[in-house]
Amino acid sequence: MELKICQSCGMPLDDNNRGTEKQGAASEDYCLYCYKDGAFTQDFTMGQMIEFCARFTDQVNEAAGWNLTPEQYKAQMRGYFPQLKRWAAGDSRSLVERATALLAQCGEVTLASVDAEGFPRPVTLSKGHTSGCNEVWIATGADSAEAADFGRNPRAGLCYSAYGDSVALRGTVEIVTDDRIRRRMWQEWYKDHFPGGADDPNYLLVRFVGHEATIRINGNFARITL
Predict the structure, then answer these.
(1) Which of 72, 123, 145, 201 is the one with CA 20 to 30 A from 51?
(2) CA 138 to chain centre
């Protein structure tokens, strides 16, 4: 009997691990981890899928009787993944479109301000609203070091990454204190940091807009002006 594998991640397919089509029928091509109700469960590039699968090298070694390192397993996947149905057609999206999808995956970003002595001050923060690949709204404390930095100097850097793909941006920050905007941009999980809600005096919004981007996605690299 021919061994069938998932045409997304390479996992051997059987009747117990098949994904599902829109009407509930078992997928002929994809496993349940990659495909559900007629759609892929993760908006990955091929490179991201390889990085994701490499996390399970130990389990793959045990099941197959191999003794691969994660790097050896990744090299193996790079050899045959381009032949799988999901990846064979390539990715027709532009790098900017793929960067926008990458930002949507990320729960956190790293924002770097410039301190009073001219040194970068990077800090990892949960993202709020986003637009495109280069506009990110972030809630921070009015009494925070980064807020003081941005009050002196609006220049900033911001980066985000997931499973080997990354985007680094250079741009500027705008401090937003308008109460109408603060209320509109409020998210309920902000209460963990600002118990006073949208009117908490320590609740501050910063809007980062990137003007230059260094993009590394799925083996593609570009520096672009936005």
Answers:
(1) 123
(2) 16
Instruction: Convert the pLDDT of each residue in 56-69 to its tens digit.
Output: 999 999 988 999 99
CA atoms within 13 A on the CB side of 49: 24
Fold of 98-225: Pnp Oxidase; Chain A (2.30.110)
pTM: 0.88
Maximum pairwise Cα distance, the chain: 69
Average pLDDT value for the chain: 95
Alpha-carbon gap, residue 80 to 83, rounded angstroms: 6
Kindly provide the residue ranges of all beta strands, DSSP E only, lying in 63-196, ordered along the sequence. Answer: 108-114, 120-126, 130-131, 135-141, 155-162, 165-176
Task: Burial-class residue 85 by CB neighbours within 10 Å (0-12, 13-18, 19+).
Answer: exposed
Tell me the pLDDT tens digit for each residue of 25-55: 999 999 999 999 999 999 999 999 999 999 9
Block residue for tokens 């793929």: 98
Sign of CA dihedral 91, 92, 96, 100: negative
Residue 17: CB atoms within 10 Å: 14
| Range 102-130 average pLDDT | 97
